């Protein structure tokens, strides 16, 4: 296949692995360094590798000031498009730089400096981006917590990250309701052992937060009197942020991202994976609370001199399924990145895509999808209706950018349905069998990446070096275990089939069934429980709880099920989308006591399943089948 640049994916890929240090040091020339690195790849502590050791830079400088200093300060940097408040605002690179410098001044005046942690618990408003970049400007470490999490989840993160400050807002806006953040923040602070020194709160017109005197300060009052702060150089290997993601237990994993490798890799991806040029508009329709928001709403587009869209709204209902097409046409979006679930939502409400006809979406060149596998229906519907290549790409919070993708800026390869295409340059991806040996083409196994991981990934988990080793490095020595199972076919195309752990994917959000089980187990009438993901037309998967009641409990099943649903919403948050539980007499386990969640899921989804050879009592599966039938599962029956 011919390419724009004359290079082919296979050549670039081979170069990236044959001499990784040379490959990434060339990419690093695009970044502004205040001190050159001593080593491109430091392997002195393998299997913990570090990139660009000794180098110094500032991430915020590379995202904002650099463009101003290069004479591009008037270009648009950030477009805030709030469908829920019908408000639009745009910031040039100069304006955003000034706003960030001022907020960095607010934080610095209250004692924040290099290495301090700051939690950002905010809705999709420009101040969230400003707060993140202000931390980066000071060398402070931000940890953004998604607004759809409950107070308890915020408290867990407070105790782990021990921030000096929290930046928040009075409310977020979900269709049809205002979500007050401040009561959740106050509750989290009272639940947590660690207390922040201060909070900065953005008052939004839709809700007025009550402030705790001496601890809480108003965003606008503080910025009005602030002195702008300069960029503080940090080591390439210093942490830029901590982003918590679901693990197999209720204790989330704090993925650490460093400054140098992150800037190098993310800037490289904008041209090479997404095919955008400086000055163009890039839109990741996600949330700043997720990794997609960190990498592709905030950092990568700004590094690359793109305008980035911060969209506060949904694909449907704000006000209609034409919302995405409006944003594309009004902002000349060249590349849209979202999750397949957003397209399923649009397709469900507007199957023939009549709303597209109301807008000029001709600026759109590519649609990128991630967060879950793109199902063939969604792929073909989007291809038909948008008439642009639809690119599935696969990545994880841990990796920060994609492991497998069709890198349109290098070479647009044929799209194969169900596959995120080939491993991206820098990723030595293999399928390993249980013995840890590479499996032949077409054979399923664990998707694992030969170390070192490329720059921009994660050096460790915050406060949890041993957990990092146990979760990712110990099972297949010399490899990073992605915990995804998959296949690589004879053409090198990757197919990501399922997680190998108990993580489920709900509307592109990664959730821990273990964390939900911990909540259910706390109900006084629940003796035992299990949570599994079951197929859902819109969200891909939704959680389903199985409860075994304590002996002698004679309370109505409906009441108990409703109570556990409320408990999960209150303890984890609405984002868990936990809406259904059912009561069973017993739970299926192996003779060694391992819960057979996969078999329960297969029965609930109406898939073919085999009686596990190690099952303790096969009759339990008949009981499970009957209980599921009682709530209409599997749906196709
Ligand atoms: N603050 C407070 N509550 C929030 C929230 C936030 N920031 N974000 C979501 N919630 C709530 C929602 O209101 C909903 O509550 P409900 O149970 O009372 O309805 C719940 O959390 C689940 O939210 P969501 O997953 O967004 O589901 P939805 O039913 O509201 O919308 C989609 C479904 C498909 C439209 C939606 O998931 C979507 O737009 N997905 C886009 C993809 C995406 O952002 N992926 C992220 C990774 S790329
Ligand atoms: P998160 O850390 O929230 O980004 O979730 C990462 C997980 O989502 C991966 O480990 C996969 O299980 C799943 N995932 C993300 N993108 C894809 C994709 N394109 N295809 C299949 N699964 C995906």
Q: How would you characterize the overall build of this protein?
A:
There is one protein chain. With 637 residues, the chain is an alpha/beta fold. It has 2 domains: 9-313 and 393-486, 3-Layer(aba) Sandwich (Rossmann fold); 507-630, GMP Synthetase, Chain A, domain 3 (2-Layer Sandwich). It is built from 18 helices and 32 strands. Strands 6-5-18-17-19-20-21 form a 7-stranded mixed beta sheet, with helices on both faces. A 5-stranded parallel beta sheet has the order 8-7-9-12-13, with helices on both faces. The two termini are 45 Å apart. The model has no long low-confidence stretch (mean pLDDT 96). It binds coenzyme A (COA) and adenosine monophosphate. Adenosine monophosphate (AMP) is lined by residues 245, 291, 370-373, 392-397, 420, 484, 496, 499, 505, 510.
Give a brief rundown of this model.
This protein is 31% helix and 25% strand. With 637 residues, the chain is of the alpha/beta class. α1 packs across α2 (20-27) and α3 (59-72) runs parallel beside α10.
End-to-end gap: 45 Å
Number of domains: 2
Strand content: 25-35%
**CATH class category name of the largest domain:** Alpha Beta
Relative helix content:
25-40%
Largest beta sheet, briefly? 7 strands, mixed
Form type: globular
Determine the CATH superfamily of the largest domain: ANL, N-terminal domain
Mean pLDDT: 96
Radius of gyration: 24 Å
Low-confidence stretches: none
Number of helices: 18
CATH architecture type of the largest domain: 3-Layer(aba) Sandwich
Question: Which molecules are bound in this entry?
Answer: coenzyme A, adenosine monophosphate
Q: Which structural category do the helix and sheet elements fall into?
A: alpha/beta
Output the CATH topology of the largest domain.
Rossmann fold
How many extended strands?
32
Strand order of the largest sheet: 6-5-18-17-19-20-21
């Amino acid at each position: 296949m011919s390419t724009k640049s004359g290079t082919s994916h296979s050549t670039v890929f081979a170069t990236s692995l044959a001499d990784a240090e040379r490959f990434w040091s060339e990419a690093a020339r695009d970044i502004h360094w205040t001190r050159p690195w001593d080593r491109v790849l430091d392997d002195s502590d393998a299997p913990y590798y570090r990139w660009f050791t000794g180098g110094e830079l500032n991430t915020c400088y590379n995202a904002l000031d650099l463009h101003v200093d290069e004479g591009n300060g008037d270009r648009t940097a950030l477009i805030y498009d709030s469908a829920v408040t019908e408000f639009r605002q745009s910031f040039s690179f100069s304006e955003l730089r000034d706003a960030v410098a001022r907020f960095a001044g607010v934080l610095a005046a209250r004692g924040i400096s290099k290495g301090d942690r700051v939690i950002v618990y905010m809705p999709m408003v420009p101040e969230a981006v400003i707060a993140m970049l202000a931390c980066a400007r000071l060398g402070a470490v931000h940890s953004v917590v998604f607004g759809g999490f409950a107070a308890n989840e915020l408290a867990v993160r407070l105790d782990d990250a021990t921030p000096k400050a929290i930046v928040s807002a009075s409310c977020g806006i979900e269709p049809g309701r205002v979500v007050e953040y401040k009561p959740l923040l106050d509750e989290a602070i009272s639940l947590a052992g660690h207390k922040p020194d201060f909070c900065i709160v953005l008052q939004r017109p839709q809700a007025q937060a009550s402030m705790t005197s001496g601890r809480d300060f108003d965003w606008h009052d503080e910025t009005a009197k602030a002195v702008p702060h300069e960029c503080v150089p940090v080591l390439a290997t210093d942490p830029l942020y901590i982003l918590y993601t679901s693990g197999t237990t209720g204790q989330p994993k704090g993925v650490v991202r460093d400054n140098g490798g992150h800037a190098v890799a993310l800037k490289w991806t904008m041209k090479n994976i997404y095919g955008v040029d400086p000055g163009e508009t890039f839109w990741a329709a996600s949330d700043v609370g997720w990794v997609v928001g960190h990498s592709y709403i905030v950092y990568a587009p700004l590094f690359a001199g793109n305008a980035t869209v911060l969209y506060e709204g949904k694909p449907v209902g704000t006000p209609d399924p034409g919302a995405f097409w409006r944003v594309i046409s009004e902002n000349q979006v060249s590349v849209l990145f979202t999750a397949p679930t957003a397209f399923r939502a649009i397709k469900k409400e507007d199957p023939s895509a009549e709303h597209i006809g109301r807008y000029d979406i001709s600026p759109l060149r590519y649609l990128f999808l991630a967060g879950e596998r793109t199902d063939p229906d969604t792929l073909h519907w989007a291809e038909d209706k948008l008439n642009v290549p639809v690119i599935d790409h696969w990545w994880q919070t841990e990796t920060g950018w994609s492991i497998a993708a069709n890198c349109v800026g290098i070479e647009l390869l044929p799209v194969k349905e169900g596959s995120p295409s080939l491993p991206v340059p820098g990723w030595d991806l293999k399928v390993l069998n249980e013995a840890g040996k590479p499996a032949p083409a077409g054979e399923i196994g664990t998707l694992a990446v030969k170390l070192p991981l490329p720059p921009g990934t994660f050096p460790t988990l915050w406060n949890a070096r041993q957990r990092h080793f146990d979760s990712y490095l110990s099972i297949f020595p010399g490899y990073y275990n992605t915990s995804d199972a998959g296949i690589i076919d004879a053409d090198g195309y990757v197919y990501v089939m399922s997680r190998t752990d108990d993580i489920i994917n709900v509307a592109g959000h990664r959730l821990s069934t273990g964390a939900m089980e911990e909540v259910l187990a706390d109900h006084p009438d629940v003796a035992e429980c299990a949570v599994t993901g079951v197929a859902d037309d819109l969200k891909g998967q939704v959680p389903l709880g199985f409860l075994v009641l304590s002996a002698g409990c004679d309370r109505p099943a409906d009441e108990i099920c409703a109570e556990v649903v409320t408990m999960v919403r209150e303890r984890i948050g609405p984002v868990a989308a936990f809406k259904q539980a059912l009561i069973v007499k017993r739970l299926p386990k192996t003779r060694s006591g391992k819960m057979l969640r996969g078999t329960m899921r297969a029965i609930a989804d109406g898939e073919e399943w085999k009686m596990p050879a190690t099952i303790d009592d096969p009759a339990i599966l008949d009981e499970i089948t009957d209980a599921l039938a009682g709530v209409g599962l599997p749906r196709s029956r």
